Amino acid sequence: MKNIWFINEYDLPPEFSKFRRRYDMSKYLLKKKKYNIHILCGSFIHGTENQYAYKEKYQKNIEYQGVHVHILRGVAYSSILKRVISMTLFGLKVAFFKFSKEERPDVIFSSSPHLFAALGAFILAKRNKAKFILEVRDLWPETWVQMGIIKQKGIIHRFFLLIEKILYIHANKIIFLGSRFDYFLNLGIPKDKLEYISNGVDLEEFDKKTSLMIPLNKNKFNITYTGAMGKANNLNIILDLAKLVQKEKIQFHLIGYGPFKSSLEKRVLEENINNVLFHNPINKNMVPEVLRNSDALIMAVLDIDLYKNGVSFNKLFEYWAASKPILFYGRITPDYIYETQSGMVGKNIEDFKEGCIKLYNMPESERKILGDNGRRYVEENFSWEKLADKVDAILDEVLK
Predict the structure, then answer these.
(1) Which of 20, 128, 192, 210 is most buried, by the most CB atoms less than 10 A from its CB?
(2) Dist CA 320 CA 314 (whole Å)
(3) Burial (CB count within 10 angstroms: exposed 0-12, middle 13-18, buried 19+), residue 146
């Protein structure tokens, strides 16, 4: 049995975290009876203001559905500066983490919501003579540059570019969640080092019936958003849309937390946008029931070049799995909603409004066709039962 260690600061068990990717992946890898799987993560719950897992913020080891989870003490953050401090400390703890003899890694598999954890994981792999796989979820530092958080070619940008280059050169494999490799190829990374594994859904888990945690008025047309409320989520455009359709019996539900939530709530009050309801985050396992009971699901992205590299928004796969039509705002590659005929796409506010009104007036039987198209697309291409086979093949290749 090979010891596989996944490194991700935010990969707490699903009862705490909105990130299921590692646990869904591990569930099907464990069925192959080839691996002992460990996850190294932090105790602070990402996407909350001051919440820690298991009440205490100190190190803890637990087992979750056969996965050994090692939780390091985390640092709460509500600003960019504190988040960078949290990232740095986690990266240092990872770099000098000590294993028992039985748990020594054969593969260190690091996911990069940020590069500090990935750099720590690379050092850890070198120290223990393990193979190193880098999973790139976001193109840092390019993401922060295009969102205006750091200056292009500034000191911080150049520092991150150096870390990025070191990681890309020394990784045995790079797994990208987007479908296009142009960014990596332009940096001189050989194509045979690159692999594509998107986000997906564990349909077996997703289809379980649970309680409905969010009250939905059945006399209204309920459009639901679930997830983070930050700059990248472009939720102000959803408020713009809500203002334009206030005369209709449409109710928008925004479920989640993030740095922009308070300003969004303030805007709703100041502008008297009376068809938007905000809800606190709910347990990840309870989200599917809310999605299934909504009439349509909504998301928006910023208009930035980054999304031309291919995207893999986790919520998009969950929306498809719920068999509901999707109302999408933005320009992405590939144009998933259009290609799958699973909803309406708006590339400007007028298109967005038109798509919303179309869904609202559409017979339920036609909306069902759109929802079923999305569900079928996920079943055929993005179930974790199938995606885990790709991960298994990569592990086999690296371990040869």
Answers:
(1) 20
(2) 10
(3) middle
* Low-confidence residues of the chain: pLDDT under 70: 46-59, 76-80, 113, 309
Of 279, 367, 388, 387, the C-alpha closest to 322 is 367
In this prediction, residue 81 carries a pLDDT of 74
pLDDT at residue 248, as a whole number: 95
For the chain, what are the domain ranges?
A: 2-200+383-399, 204-381
Question: Looking at domain 2-200+383-399, which CATH architecture does it have?
Answer: 3-Layer(aba) Sandwich (3.40)
- Going by C-alpha positions, the residue among 216, 233, 373 that lies closest to residue 301 is 233
Q: Which residues pair with 253 in a beta bridge?
A: 224, 277
From residue 378, alpha-carbon distances to 63, 144, 319 in Å are 29, 30, 10
Give the per-residue pLDDT at 58. Answer: 59
394 and 175 Cβ atoms separated by less than 8 Å: yes
Contacts 24+ apart (CB under 8 A), 376-383: 377/320, 377/340, 377/342, 378/200, 378/201, 378/203, 378/317, 378/320, 378/321, 379/203, 382/198, 382/199, 382/200, 382/201, 382/317, 382/320, 383/200, 383/201, 383/202, 383/203
Q: Cα dist. 365→28, 60, 189, 359 in Å?
A: 35, 50, 48, 11
Is residue 326 within 8 A of residue 346, CB to CB? The reply is no
Residue-averaged pLDDT of the chain: 92
Among residues 214, 345, 341, 343, the alpha carbon closest in space to that of 282 is found at 214
Q: Which CATH class is domain 204-381?
A: alpha beta
> What are the contacts of 351-354 at 24+ separation with CB within 8 A?
352/237, 352/240, 352/241, 352/327, 353/241, 353/244, 353/245
